[in-house]
């Protein structure tokens, strides 16, 4: 497994496993504490694992947390997703930068997203399972959602949106969401 810095988002990393394939399929390590530690992250900081299943066209996001924020490791364990990260840390050298990734069950690449960044994704396949490992327990009172179609972000979502949560559908634009994040 190797770690590669994401140039568009300061402090973000891609963790790329080395799959071992044979006639049965493949095997790969999807988390390695030593590799995580090698880029200055504490592997023991992650306290909660979650999984979502989405169907083609479903859009989830853009989400972040107020207060101390939330760092996370995201991996598409089955299918494919178009993944988006937006740096919303005012002190960051990559503030307001966006980065786009295609994560898939075939590669099992994991994306590390630093606290203070917004995250969202769209399912590209009929079924897409997405795993999350976060660094603190979820507190719904800290949830901040940004409109997926905010023109200031101009995210090139690859498919028409087939479904999203009511919260995501009613999300405010970036400017209003940033005010919520600060409070």
TrEMBL record:
Known catalytic reactions: dTDP-4-dehydro-6-deoxy-alpha-D-glucose = dTDP-4-dehydro-beta-L-rhamnose
Enzyme Commission identifier(s): 5.1.3.13
Chain spans, region Disordered: 161-183
Principal EC category: isomerase
Record-annotated membrane-spanning stretches: none
Keywords: Isomerase
GO molecular function: dTDP-4-dehydrorhamnose 3,5-epimerase activity
Its biological purpose: Catalyzes the epimerization of the C3' and C5'positions of dTDP-6-deoxy-D-xylo-4-hexulose, forming dTDP-6-deoxy-L-lyxo-4-hexulose.
Protein name per Swiss-Prot or TrEMBL: dTDP-4-dehydrorhamnose 3,5-epimerase
Natural source organism: Streptomyces coffeae
Lineage per the UniProt record: Bacteria, Bacillati, Actinomycetota, Actinomycetes, Kitasatosporales
Gene: rfbC
């Amino acid at each position: 497994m190797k770690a590669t810095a994401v140039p568009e988002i300061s402090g973000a990393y891609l963790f790329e496993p080395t799959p071992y394939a044979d006639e049965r399929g493949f095997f790969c390590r999807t988390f390695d504490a030593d590799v995580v530690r090698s880029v200055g992250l504490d592997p023991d900081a992650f306290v909660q694992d979650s999984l979502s299943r989405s169907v083609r066209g479903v859009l989830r996001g853009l989400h972040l947390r107020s207060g101390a924020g939330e760092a996370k490791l995201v991996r598409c364990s089955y299918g494919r997703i178009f993944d988006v990260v937006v740096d919303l840390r005012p002190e960051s050298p990559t503030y307001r930068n966006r980065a786009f990734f295609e994560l898939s069950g075939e590669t099992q690449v994991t994306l590390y997203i630093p606290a203070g960044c917004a995250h969202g994704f769209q399912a590209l396949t009929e079924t897409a399972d997405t795993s999350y490992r976060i660094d603190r327990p979820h507190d719904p009172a800290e949830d901040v959602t940004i409109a997926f179609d905010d023109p200031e972000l101009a995210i090139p979502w690859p498919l028409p949106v087939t479904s999203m949560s009511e919260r995501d559908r009613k999300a405010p634009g970036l400017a209003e969401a940033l005010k919520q994040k600060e409070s």
